[in-house]
Every structure is written in C-alpha cells, then in structure tokens.
C-alpha cells in the first residue's frame, strides 16, 4: 500500500503555483482537496487504503509547497484554483473528495467544470446554513497565534499526540501532518509551518463572507454527492470549537442527487477514521 509520491509536479494557475502529488493506479482518478491549515499528504492514509485507484492531491494556495500570497484570502479563490487545475489535468469523471475548506473548493470546482467529476464526497465541507453568510469578516481567529517554530516534525508530533483534537487522530495521519506540515525556516534554524498562521487565520476569518456562499452554484451539480458530516453536538460558538461541524445539517438536500451521511466522529473525520473514508470511496456507486 503506497501513499502519494515523494515529489510533486507544479502547475501554474490563477497567478499561483500549486504543488500536485500523485499515486499511479487505475482511472477514473480520485482527486483530494485538504482542509484549512493542512496539506495534500494528510490524505496518505486514505490513499494507502485504495491501492487500485489513481490518486491526485493538491497543496492548495497558501499551504504545503504551493505559493503563499499575502492575506487576505477568500474562499471562492480555492474553488477557482481547483477548477483551473482540473482543466490542466484534463480530469474527466473523477471522484472528488474534499475535507472542510477542501470540500467547499471541490463543490465550486464541480459547478464550474461539469465534466471533471462524476461523484463527490464532501467531508464536512463548511458550506454553512445560508443565513450564516454576512459581509462582516469574522473576528481575528486564534490560529494566528499558533506556535510557528519547531526543531523537528518529531517535536511537533510529541507536542500534539496527547492534546485535543489531535489525540483522537489516527497516529499515522498525525505523523504525516507533522512530517509534511513543516518547511525549513528562512534562516535555516529549525522549521516553520507550511501554512503560515496569518494565512490560516485569514482563511477561517473569511468563511462566512458572501463570496463563500455556494447555494446559487449547487444547483448546477448533476452528479451523486455524499455529504459526510459530524453529528456531534456543537459548541455554543462553533467558530471556536474546531471539532464541531460547521456544515449546514440539511446541505445534502440542496443537491440534485445528495445523500446525507452523519457520523459520530468530529469535524476531523479523515484524520480520525481514514479507513472509513477509504471505504466510502471504494463503495460509492
């Protein structure tokens, strides 16, 4: 069972360079998009569990080895990037799998590039109840204050393994998150986060702006859509409870061919249960 490739291919789209990672296999491919603050290799443990399929995963702008424009960031930008990348990759009939902001991005890309995907698995895709969208940017997000200097991925792993929400993750997923979530510091002394805290915070702060509202796009998606979401009770203020589901509970009903799949996991479903996500991909007909 092999994960994504060790080296990426780079694609220039919409003024940025995106790192794209692939694992050979049979077509049609599975295309993965990650959550805010994460990276393509967070899908490694899912990819390893579907060894027969060609798998493609992207480091979205601001993340991993992709370009990192200065904030602010707007959510529609990521969907347009995925759509442009789908054109460059000549995707046809792929299964699109996106977690959190990645699920939001896959949704917009599927509306824009209607032949790229023939089914979608949206894992808690942060498409909010429509009434939640507002012109006001959210208050400064605490992600801006994340620790951003590390001696090694091992230090990061040991710091997180017993802390929520990471303590509930599959340890191999946490290992991949740490190993590929750091890049060398500019001064070559230690490592910094591959998604800088100011970028991560900016993305969270923009999640309820009007440009992130996809309800006028969802009707254009004419393929089967599975909305996999956490059914755990949410904190009274979801914006500060990272394990809570921000996804509209009735989201699946807005798609022509939507199916709602509530789970007992937290918002970090692929991190906690990569085997569950791999099984959904393999069995989705």
What would a concise description of this structure say?
This protein has 285 residues and is of the alpha/beta class.
Task: Name the descriptors.
alpha/beta, 285 residues, single chain, two-stranded antiparallel sheet, 8-stranded mixed β-sheet, Rossmann fold
Structure description:
The structure is a single chain. This protein has 285 residues and is an alpha/beta fold. The protein has one domain (9-144, 199-283): 3-Layer(aba) Sandwich (Rossmann fold). It has helices spanning 44-47, 75-89, 101-112, 153-160, 171-180, 197-205, 215-218, 269-272, 274-283; strands at 9-13, 16-23, 26-33, 53-59, 94-99, 117-123, 182-184, 191-193, 225-230, 258-263. An eight-stranded mixed β-sheet has the order 1-2-4-3-5-6-9-10. Strands 7-8 form a two-stranded antiparallel sheet. A hairpin with a 2-residue loop joins strand 1 (9-13) and strand 2 (16-23). Helix 2 (75-89) crosses helix 3 and helix 4 (153-160) packs across helix 5. The longest helix is centred in the N-terminal third of the chain and has 15 residues, at 75-89. 46% of the residues are buried.
**What class would the helix/strand composition place it in?**
alpha/beta
Q: Might you state the CATH topology name?
A: Rossmann fold
Helical percentage? 25-40%
Count of spatially separate domains? 1
Q: How would the blueprint of this fold be written?
A:
Elements: E1 9-13, E2 16-23, E3 26-33, H1 44-47, E4 53-59, H2 75-89, E5 94-99, H3 101-112, E6 117-123, H4 153-160, H5 171-180, E7 182-184, E8 191-193, H6 197-205, H7 215-218, E9 225-230, E10 258-263, H8 269-272, H9 274-283
Parallel strand pairs: 3-4, 3-5, 5-6, 6-9, 9-10
Antiparallel strand pairs: 1-2, 2-4, 7-8
Helix pairs in contact: 2-3, 4-5
